[in-house]
Xaa-Pro aminopeptidase 1
Amino acid sequence: MSSKVTTELLKQLCQVMRSSKHITEPIQAYIVPSGDAHQSEYIAPCDCRRAFISGFDGSAGTAIITEQNAAMWTDGRYFLQAASQMDNNWTLMKMGVKDTPSQEDWLVSVLPEGSRVGVDPFIISADQWKRMSKVLRSAGHTLVPVSENLIDVVWVDRPQRPCKPLITLGLSYTGVGWKEKITILRLKMAERKVPWLVVTALDEVAWLFNLRGSDVEYNPVFFAYAIIGINSIRLFIDGDRMTDPAVRKHLQLDSTLEPEFKIQVLPYESILTELQAICTGLSPKEKVWLSDKASYALTEAIPKVHRYLTPYTPICLGKAVKNEAETAGMRRAHIKDAVALCELFNWLEKEVPKGTVTEISAADKAEEFRSQQNDFVELSFATISSTGPNGAIIHYKPVPETNRTLSMSEIYLLDSGAQYKDGTTDVTRTMHFGTPSAYEKECFTYVLKGHIAVSAAIFPNGTKGHLLDSFARSALWDTGLDYLHGTGHGVGSFLNVHEGPCGISYKTFADEPLEAGMVVSDEPGYYEDGSFGIRIENVVLVVPAETKYNFKNRGSLTFEPLTLVPIQTKMIDVHLLTQKECDWVNNYHQKCREVIGAELERQGRHEALQWLLKETGPITRMQ
Amino acid sequence: MSSKVTTELLKQLCQVMRSSKHITEPIQAYIVPSGDAHQSEYIAPCDCRRAFISGFDGSAGTAIITEQNAAMWTDGRYFLQAASQMDNNWTLMKMGVKDTPSQEDWLVSVLPEGSRVGVDPFIISADQWKRMSKVLRSAGHTLVPVSENLIDVVWVDRPQRPCKPLITLGLSYTGVGWKEKITILRLKMAERKVPWLVVTALDEVAWLFNLRGSDVEYNPVFFAYAIIGINSIRLFIDGDRMTDPAVRKHLQLDSTLEPEFKIQVLPYESILTELQAICTGLSPKEKVWLSDKASYALTEAIPKVHRYLTPYTPICLGKAVKNEAETAGMRRAHIKDAVALCELFNWLEKEVPKGTVTEISAADKAEEFRSQQNDFVELSFATISSTGPNGAIIHYKPVPETNRTLSMSEIYLLDSGAQYKDGTTDVTRTMHFGTPSAYEKECFTYVLKGHIAVSAAIFPNGTKGHLLDSFARSALWDTGLDYLHGTGHGVGSFLNVHEGPCGISYKTFADEPLEAGMVVSDEPGYYEDGSFGIRIENVVLVVPAETKYNFKNRGSLTFEPLTLVPIQTKMIDVHLLTQKECDWVNNYHQKCREVIGAELERQGRHEALQWLLKETGPITRMQ
């Protein structure tokens, strides 16, 4: 990788920071966070402003530019990449490393007295603003919102904001029509006596209106906001997407409708002025509901007395609990996904020994098999196809410079998934095409024990995911091993592969209580730097559990695997399994045989079916 | 229980709330929290102001008195007790019950516009103040500190603040002298560049100076504050305690000392003016370290720019990690405690069949046996001696009205502990003197499995206790059972039986990472309302664990039981145990035999020794 030359760009930016054409009063520093106006995890090219100004295109990082300095904060995953992508104008600030100053502290140390620090108020979240503003203020500086994005001023060939066609989803996919969703939402608003709600997260807008898009790679979302009133609906969306007859029909834009379901379509950019206008008309006790993760610009548009902030909107919570149609869709999607992976693994078993398969070609082949399936839309994230030491890089994505050939002597880890019109998948399998060492099998088996411990756990209704995290680690901990990531994340229904508000992690954020219908991943791992990586991931559905007793009538929950892809038994040291764990593996493989076997048969994929049957034979603990 | 007549008292209090003699401007409401100026869990009689004004003497509750109303907030443990102890002047506010208003919301709903709400700034913590003040202010009211406690004005026969003699602890008990502790503390202060630290928690003052007291029942502490400067020590303490030659010698008050170890003894009440004086002399960048749980009065005395607040002081963190002398002392204390309990259980086995033993007499007998042990000081909390349905009341304390006779047909639960000069104990055993039912055994065995799962857990250095909580519940969860309390709390070394900053709970507060030398309890339970209660509690020491591998060189930890009291094998359904669990029980009992057996022998307690040997025979899983 070569670094981007940024001298001229930074000079231009500094000029803009002083220019009365773009800013009322000069600023002495400008903050460029990652992210877009919707606080999305994945962003569109037009929003990659931090990458444009610095050259560093990792998924996490914040740039700050002053007259004299340019500094980049990023975490351990990206130290090497950032250092190689940025030129000498930039100072790398290694987050999590002792003595690295925080952004605020650094600003205080380099700025002249009474400085003004600018930031785009749509890109920074309200809570980040609050934290930074407090420190700057106490040191005599001011954090100021700069409404024109100053990177955009110097970014002459900045891509357009994507404005791709929309997909409408019928009741067979969504289970609940958008009008019914709005009605349920309004009930929640009435319960809290809040007459207005602002929807800022892209997946929440998509879910609410049963629409999907492709403005952001991997995430079937589109750029839009919505404001839901007790009697009105405003949708802020650009382009000619609303001229599509299918969309007009879906949203009933040309029908005679009860006025409370009439959608007022407004330009994307008008959200702020429209929200301000709504707030002007509020009576003293009326509130506006907004996620506390929303942008500073929208939060600030609501006068403090009218703000009703919660960590999650009722849309986020409703979206997390999949209904019957969504659950059925997720099952279908996972069956198709398993078919594609059986084809892939069968192909790999034949091709790897020839020495012609690389991490990239394997990933491409996986995509090819997936794309043959019905209702396939795109991948749900960049495929992690890694062998040998690359497997130990948790967020690895093969590129030509690192591309490694799959072999008979190294562990291969494939973490991949897809968007189908009926559901989103995310699955990791770890395999060996030759003979794994005893140590590799031992580690794999501990990871498997952890996977099973979570998957088979029974726990009370309303348990938070963080309480299950240790179950995944216990077998590793017993021998002094561990892995440095969470155990699971929420998964959307033909939506983002990572979604809130639930998960399974030692971290206690994004941790709303689990309830039946939620979908999360179960993905413990073990990584040996420079040698190999192991991860076993299923997407699992939270389901009611039958128990002998029922304390305080609370009811119990457990998980049902939606992912039905064989777990390589060759990698298992059966002596390390309990009988219960052994039974779990055999039952799981029996279900793979039945469900995926039938589908492979139906699709006439006989070779893959033979592979499935071979891989799902029962294992036994030798006594 | 009969209710206290409070009509006259409340009238007097309302007069005081308007009286210019006691308050500069009338207040319309007065808040009376539980607790003292040190935010102690256990309080002295002179600090039981909420109980005095209302009659309700449970451990948790907040009273608010306005011209027209008197209301009491308390939690589910105390609904019945509060209702029966308070007269009609009082409205019971059931916390945790839907539609119960918060204190702030209630105040807003009953107060006339622009009201002033008073509270003793020493009794309310800074964070409680902040929360309440914010809500009141946004509704147009003001929270005001009232420096004279208004309850004390109307409480004519209020007890004196206790001022009992002090105990000095030598190096054999503490391992580290107070001067060395001060030196270590000053290093921590220097690391953070903070020249001053205010010590407000009573157990922190006691630990720092290697002194103990008896001002508060069950807690060997004394009323005092300290302010540690880089070059000075101020101890705020009342009475003639500093005239005791042993104390003077211990603190070297009459010796020629390096000036930085010279203790300036000041009156208890002068803490505020002294702290204010210190703050007046601070240079702009100098800070004063204080726990964020300290009182509003002391927090507010430090100008905001000079405040350095952390959840825990370095004293709290240092105190939690027991050194070798403290660990050895804890071991000795637990051996003596086990001797006393072996005597008790042997006695109970003989006496219970006669039908003459009650919950109260059993508790008294336990205290009698404990008091025969060397260095016994007092109990460490009110003994929970409960049989049958009383066992299901988690914080039960037998009183004549509820006192039940122990029988051959009911489960007996004893949760008790003591303060010895060398350590603090806290142990729960559950037993049956006749034949337990299959269901009782089943539940007991699930609780035991949970106890073992925590006790035998191996986990990485620095793991937080909340990550271990589910291990204690897993066996119960599997059958739909659970218990509604945390699994463990920190235990002091001849100090408070509940101490921060670590614990094992599904709640994530008081949850600093576990490290070797910390001492916590392991006490899962199961409670069937109206029938029985089961709890198995050991105090355990965090110790390094030997593991096969050592991921990232982090090292691993596990627990070593300090409590060595037999677990009644009659209550165990061995078929529900794994071989590993069976081995754990047998190893534990083997250690009880060896260690406690030797001590019983040494003390010539032959009958109790026979009982111990009988109770610790190995169990086997019938194949």
Notes: Chain B touches chain A through 31 residues (CB under 8 Å). The domain at 321-616 of chain B is CATH 3.90.230.10 (Creatine Amidinohydrolase).
